[in-house]
Amino acid sequence: MNAVAHPVFRLEDYRQTPYTIPRTELCFNLHPEKTQVQAKLAFTPRQDTPAATPLVLDGDELILVSVAIDGKPLPQNAYSATADRLEIFNPPAAPFTLETTTQINPQANRQLMGLYRSNGIFCTQCEAEGFRRITYFYDRPDVLSVYTVRIEAEAKSCPVLLANGNPRESGALEDGRHYAVWHDPFPKPSYLFALVGGDLEAVHDTFTTAGGKKVALAIYVEKSKGNRALYAMDALKRSMRWDEEAFGREYDLDVFNIVAVSDFNMGAMENKGLNIFNDKYVLADPQTATDADYAGIERVIAHEYFHNWTGDRITCRDWFQLCLKEGLTVYRDQEFSSDQRSRPVVRIGEVRMLAAAQFPEDAGPLAHPVRPRQYAEINNFYTTTIYEKGAEVVRMVHTLLGDTLFRAGMDLYFQRHDGEACTIEDFIACFAETSGRDFSQFMLWYEQAGTPHIKAEFDFDEKGNSLTITLEQSLKSTPGQTEKQPMVLPVRFGLVGADGRDMAFQADNHVEGDVMVLSGKRQSFCFTGLKSRPVPSLLRGFSAPVTIELPLSDKDMAFLARHDSDPVNRWQALNRLLLKTCAQMAQTASAPDEQLVDLIGEIAGDETLDPAFRVMCLSIPSEAEIARVIDHDVDPERIFAAWQGLLAAIAQKHQVHFLALWQNIDRKAPYSPDAASAGKRALANILLDYLARAENAPQRAADAYGKADNMTDRIAALRILAHQFPHAEQTKAALQDFATRFAADPLVMDKWFAVQATRAGADTLEQVQALTEHPLFSYDNPNRVRALIATFAAGSQTGFNRADGKAYDFLAETILMIDKQNPQLASRLLTTMRSWRSLEKNRKGKIKTALEKIAHADRLSRDVNDIVTRMLHE
Ligand code: TRP
Ligand code: ZN
Predict the structure, then answer these.
(1) In terms of Cα–Cα distance, which of 256, 249, 270 is closest to 203?
(2) β-strand 522-528 against 466-474: which pairing, if any?
(3) Which of 21, 272, 418, 769 has the most other CB atoms within 10 Å of its CB?
(4) What residue's CA is closest to ligand 1, atom 14?
(5) CATH numbers and ranges of domains, the chain
(6) Ligand 1 atom 15 nearest Cα
């Protein structure tokens, strides 16, 4: 294995720093290759810090130009400075000021961490440990400081100069340069620092808070793209209002700025008062963005804005507590989206996402607790477990407490911990206190990795008109955790009578309203006063992130799919039946269940249902989801055959019906991205997909492509063409047309790359390789790499898993190449192979060889080394 041993960081090793930094003054002299950073840091020893305790600061690729304490240059023998560390051997015992000047090269920074340039714009990304690439500092979240930042730059190329907080002063300098000074009154950790300098265009607006404070809002984008930032601005204002109404949280600075850049490792970043975004989550208009893009923008804008309280005003003590800000903020953005859109449809989307991404992570070699106890590289812990499972844990607190007590707990958290760097214990203690409930067992949700499994038994007693539901929980071992304890699992439920209505019942004391609280290994819940045998509907609203095994016949399950009053469980019941039939088809090459095919048609045509909900029901489980239930000896070809077989059966059976439904959808209204309109478009497009399958001809989709007046319809038609009829003339023409239309817009061309990369079939690899030569493709840009390479690995099951293993080799080579410049991107690409052990023998052997090739390569980054080591660990 790789020769370099990397240190491991452990939660129990947490210690405070010996010094605090109450004030930080920075002066940036921006220059593409030689930016100088003067830092003036006010240090104060803590009360218990012994005199002469060395001051040790973090750095990364820094060049030290000068260093002084209290105005006096330090002699050589008073300190040691390397690229990644500055140590002052014997600092003064009283508060002192450290002045350093460092030099950095933003142009050469391709990691996109620290200060870098994106399309000529200077910008920063400091979370988690990027600030140390700017200046020597205590680069950790528990050192809070008040920042004043001065930026100097060339006026012509950088007319816009931004930093955190409020603008204080600006003016001209000699030699065509100018400056701006920003002051952020709220103490913050270094990871929330941000700076931007460039020639940008802005859209401006204002927001008046509930308390009457007028806030100037601006979204900065590349020149000529301002009109594509209007939806983001609208989403921002709605987020600001919602946080006041739902959580009583008001904005706190005079300005709130957002900047969109095209090179960015993640979605966006919550820097105090100056959020920086991947432009994918800002730019939208009907011609270039899909309904899903609009929804994504709304969600990410809200997410980053909500961090202002959950993340910025109250931050994390250390990176083990990452879910404190991320799980909670995801929960908040989910609630926002639910209030802005259809709550059940949003929830079903979250459940699908958990099942497709988080459950596999929790079942594989990269499984880790929501609060990890150790890490080698923190960048590898920005995972779906921290974010989405972390949000589910907060949701369970809400489920257990109800609206009022949950809100009281949140209020206490904001009031008690404002201005602090906290732990999960601090957060949970607030709910324990306001509710009087004991949360000690609940804390296992933060400690134990893996998806709990519940096995349910139903025992109906005809004579006594009573029902006993017995639930038994289990949790498989995960890396480093073999012994598991029973957890607290809130199971929301209803007892559905023959008429489809929820029955009234009396229950024993572990049932709280409509929630059974399972806390033992095995526990029975008794219900009496029932008139007839009900069909239990368990885990309504997906009340806990678990898998559940139900002793229900297909007939009962179909009954729930038709009648459950909880739409999430209606969909869940249908999805279970679909998964079961797909798995059977894949394993025995059997035909699909006819009654299930009929049921799909029934739901598709049920005009009383929200179109978006019908779309959820019509979109059968993905190949990856089917693979997950099959679990071992997975043959992607057979899964694809089953998946395609089920779609074909549905399409053929309902061809006439679907055509009538499709023709009846009203297309007259002008484009609007709201959820109701989007639902109608999604229904039309999924029906079109089925029609193309039934007709086995590309013409209808080609016509739809030609008529499309918005990106949602255009890309849907293009996808049908490229996936179902890859070699048709109509497909070639449409792909060509798309490339011509959007040649000037790489962000839009990402959709074109992704559509081609996610096609089924072994020859998709050659197509992907050819597309890497396309003039608009670049390995330097994370969005391009994700659109072409990551979507191929995750979205073309038969292409990526082709039997000769060539796609695994291609990915391994690509990862090693990207690792040299952007380790975060490389390690994310690598995680697409995390479920390799469930593959059948031949493919498993080939993918293992590819992984070993990565593991044995020279000079791996810490990021890739950490992931590949864990993936190969026996
Ligand atoms: N805190 C950001 C968010 O969730 C995530 C993020 C943005 C990030 N950029 C990053 C994390 C770079 C690690 C590295 O909103
Ligand atoms: Zn976040």
Answers:
(1) 256
(2) antiparallel
(3) 272
(4) 127
(5) 23-306 (2.60.40.1730), 322-549 (2.60.40.1840), 743-874 (1.25.50.10)
(6) 269
Q: Is the peptide bond between 295 and the residue preceding it cis, with omega within 30 degrees of 0?
A: no
Output the pLDDT for position 1.
Answer: 43
Q: Are 811 and 851 in contact (CB under 8 A)?
A: no
Confidence at 508, pLDDT banded by 50, 70, 90? confident
Residues with CB under 5 A from ligand 2 (ion): 326, 329
Q: Are 63 and 100 in contact (CB under 8 A)?
A: no
Instruction: Give 423-441 pLDDT, tens digit per residue.
Output: 999 999 999 999 999 999 9
Distance (Å, whole) CA 761 – CA 766: 10
**With bands split at pLDDT 50, 70 and 90, how would you rate the model's confidence at 4?**
low
Determine contact, residues 22/42, Cβ cutoff 8 Å: yes
The two tokens of residue 565 are 């009053």
Identify the helix (H) or strand (E) that includes residue 148: strand 145-154
Ligand nearest to the CA of 267: 1
801 Cβ neighbours under 8 A, 6+ residues apart: 636, 807, 839, 843
List the one residue out of 348, 322, 326, 327 whose CA is nearest residue 337: 348
Residues with Cβ within 8 Å of residue 668, at least 6 apart in sequence: none
Helix (H, G, I), strand (E, B) or coil at 719: helix
Tokens 């607006």 belong to: 205
* Mean pLDDT of the chain, nearest integer: 97
Residue closest to 454 by CA, chosen among 357, 521, 528, 355: 521
Sign of CA dihedral 162, 165, 167, 173: negative
Cα angle: 575, vertex 789, 281; to 5 degrees: 75
CA atoms of 233 and 297, how far apart (whole Å): 10
Q: What pLDDT score does 3 carry?
A: 46
128 CB less than 6 Å from ligand 1? Answer: yes
The model's pTM is: 0.98
Q: Which helix (H) or strand (E) holds 259?
A: strand 255-261
Check pocket membership of 448 for ligand 1, CB cut-off 6 A.
Answer: no
Residues in the chain: 874
Asked whether the beta carbons of 579 and 625 are under 8 A apart, the reply is: yes
Q: What SS3 state is found at 183?
A: strand
3-state secondary structure of 821: coil
Ligand 1 contacts CB of residue 822 (under 6 A): no
Taking only the tens place, the pLDDT of each residue in 29-39 is 999 999 999 99
Nearest to 413 by CA among 310, 307, 317, 308: 310
Number of H helices, E strands in the chain: 29, 33
What tokens appear for 616 in the block? 């959820």
Q: What is the identity of the amino acid at 302? A: A
89: Cα within 13 Å, side-chain hemisphere: 7
Residue 227 CB partners (closer than 8 Å, separation 6+): 285
869 neighbors 395 (Cβ within 8 angstroms)? no
DSSP string spanning 665-702?
A: S---SPP--SHHHHHHHHHHHHHHHHHHHHHT-SHHHH
Best residue among 133, 266, 305 to mutate for probing ligand 1, ranked by most atoms within 8 Å of CB: 266
Terminal Cα-to-Cα distance of the chain (whole angstroms): 13
Angle CA(359)–CA(363)–CA(366) in degrees, nearest 5? 100
Q: 679: closest CA among 597, 687, 649, 719?
A: 687
Backbone dihedral region for residue 161 (phi beyond 0: left; psi -120 to 50: alpha; all else: beta):
beta
DSSP 311-374: TTTBEESSGGGHHHHHHHHHHHHHHHHHHHS-HHHHHHHHHHHIIIIIHHHHHSTT---SS-SE
d(CA 311, CA 288): 32
Instruction: Describe the strand order of the beta sheet including 522-528 as a list of residue ranges.
Output: 506-507, 522-528, 466-474, 453-461, 547-549
Q: Is 333 in the pocket of ligand 1 (CB under 6 A)?
A: no
Spatial separation of the C-alpha atoms in residues 275 and 194, rounded to whole Å: 8
Tokens 């083990």, residue located = 320
